[in-house]
């Protein structure tokens, strides 16, 4: 007895399954009502949405190309950057600690890391600011500021920030980072060294259980510090207010992935080091390509973590854009009218006008989307924003004197068609006049319905259904 599934070959059934999965990920998933699912199912759907958006933005923002650009810029700026740090640390008597720190940082490169560290320190030693003069110091600082500016621009592009910081603010931030960064690094190293050498700490470490606990803590400390560092970068670099949850999620992801990639890279380099005499002869030539590859992988991971933070921060808005693709302007008009009538109804009941946060929670629409939809009503002088920048909208006049026709006209807007479409098209001009007549007839049908009456009608209908 043949079933329906057995009537088709296996490869065709697989194709249909893949098509169903694709339709779910591109269409059906955005219309799901998560309130009707279990907590586990809703959590899983949210993570799938985040994954879909991360993959989309990964290609849309060309992260690999940005990582390549930052790799090249890092290669040009690493010696000037270390020269500036070396000069600052030398003035504080801390320059002798720079070489071990750099060697530890390049440890994923294995023996070649020590080779690269020695060569970089040699260049840095030759580039001391005392022998370069004012022009040389200015060039070093401009090179360092250039790479920092490029990093900030890349982060702002990923976060789609329309306005970047002014040059005075950027220069002040770069200078502070260049001066405070080395001090913080050496302070952590000095604090760690002093703690491990303290008598009380040595007494505690003499006990087996505490020593084992410290060993585990030292193994996990690089992961924790990397996660914290990347989270702080995501939180502070973009010129936008980033929620700490989003920054922490991106930081934890990139920090753990970066440490794991370092371990994998170190094993790869160690395996490549066990080579024949001929390969050892050419090992020096492989140092620079390996160094470039390591920087490229590191930047790719950092940018991917930043991308994840952006998606988590804006997942509600991005999901709303998917719904707009399916439902068009009708969805935006519904949200706008719903929000305005809610404001009018609360004012008529003697309550305070709801803020955007309350509207977003009640309507289950992202707060930035509601603000964007209501923006035309501010332009048309139908609504005004609350005092002191509070995101609370109130009508500019008595709602009984504002008609629904005015409201819908403000949402739709009156944008003239391009003249070149109608200049040599008499039939097209007739179609334009026809559409204008249809709009006028629709507006006349609701011209006498005020916002106050519309809000009362919607409330009355709600009470009738609840009886």
Helix content: over 70%
Number of helical stretches of at least 4 residues: 19
Which geometry do the CA atoms define? elongated
How many whole angstroms does the radius of gyration measure? 31 Å
Sheet-strand content, in percent, reads under 5%
Weakly predicted, low-confidence segments: none
Could you tell me how far the N terminus lies from the C terminus, measured between alpha carbons in angstroms?
Answer: 55 Å
In which order are the strands of the major sheet placed?
Answer: 1-2
Question: Would you mind describing this structure in some detail?
Answer:
The protein has 467 residues and is mainly α. Helix content is 77%, strand content 1%. It is built from 19 helices and 2 strands. Helix 3 packs antiparallel against helix 6, helix 5 crosses helix 12 (283-327) and helix 13 (329-348) crosses helix 19 (451-466). The two termini are 55 Å apart.
Itemize the secondary structure elements and their pairings.
Layout: H1 10-26, H2 39-60, H3 63-91, H4 98-105, H5 111-126, H6 129-158, H7 167-197, H8 199-205, H9 208-236, H10 244-273, H11 277-281, H12 283-327, H13 329-348, H14 356-363, H15 367-379, E1 383-385, E2 393-395, H16 404-412, H17 419-422, H18 426-445, H19 451-466
Helix pairs in contact: 2-12, 3-5, 3-6, 3-7, 3-12, 5-12, 9-10, 10-12, 13-19, 14-15
């Amino acid at each position: 007895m043949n079933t329906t599934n057995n009537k088709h070959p296996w490869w065709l059934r697989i194709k249909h399954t893949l098509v169903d999965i694709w339709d779910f990920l591109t269409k059906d998933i955005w219309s799901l009502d998560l309130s009707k699912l279990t907590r586990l199912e809703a959590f899983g759907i949210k993570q799938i949405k985040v994954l879909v958006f991360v993959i989309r933005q990964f290609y849309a923002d060309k992260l690999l190309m940005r990582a390549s650009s930052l790799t090249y810029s890092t290669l040009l700026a690493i010696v000037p950057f270390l020269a500036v740090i070396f000069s600052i640390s030398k003035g504080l008597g801390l320059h002798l600690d720079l070489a071990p720190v750099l060697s530890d940082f390049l440890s994923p490169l294995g023996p070649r890391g020590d080779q690269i560290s020695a060569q970089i320190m040699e260049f840095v030693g030759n580039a001391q600011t005392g022998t370069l003069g004012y022009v040389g110091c200015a060039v070093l600082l401009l090179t360092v500021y250039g790479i920092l500016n490029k990093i900030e621009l890349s982060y702002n592009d990923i976060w789609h920030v329309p306005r970047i910081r002014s040059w005075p603010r950027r220069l002040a931030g770069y200078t502070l980072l260049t001066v405070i960064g080395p001090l913080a690094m050496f302070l952590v190293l000095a604090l760690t060294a002093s703690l491990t050498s303290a008598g009380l700490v040595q007494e505690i470490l003499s006990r087996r259980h505490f020593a084992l606990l410290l060993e585990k803590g030292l193994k996990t400390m690089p992961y924790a510090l990397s996660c914290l560092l990347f989270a702080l970068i995501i939180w502070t670099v973009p010129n936008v207010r980033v929620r700490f949850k989003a920054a922490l999620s991106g930081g934890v992801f990139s920090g753990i992935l970066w440490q794991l990639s370092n371990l994998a890279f170190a094993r790869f380099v160690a395996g490549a080091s066990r080579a024949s005499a001929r390969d050892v002869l050419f090992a020096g030539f492989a140092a620079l390509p390996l160094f470039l590859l390591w920087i490229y992988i590191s930047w790719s991971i950092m940018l991917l973590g930043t991308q994840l933070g952006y998606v988590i921060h804006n997942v509600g808005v991005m999901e709303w854009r998917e719904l707009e693709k399916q439902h068009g302007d009708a969805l935006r008009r519904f949200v706008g009218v719903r929000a305005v009538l809610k404001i009018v109804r609360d004012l008529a009941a003697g309550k305070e006008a709801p803020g955007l946060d309350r509207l977003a929670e009640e309507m289950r629409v992202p707060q930035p989307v509601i603000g964007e939809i209501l923006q035309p009503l501010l332009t048309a002088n139908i609504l005004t924003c609350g005092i002191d920048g509070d995101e609370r909208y109130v009508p500019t006049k008595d709602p009984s004197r504002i008609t629904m026709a005015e409201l819908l006209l403000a949402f739709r807007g009156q944008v003239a068609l391009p003249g070149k479409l109608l200049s040599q098209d008499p039939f097209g001009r007739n179609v334009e006049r026809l559409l204008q007549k249809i709009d006028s007839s629709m507006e006349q049908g609701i011209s006498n319905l005020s916002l106050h009456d519309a809000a009362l009608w919607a409330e009355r209908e709600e009470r009738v259904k609840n009886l």
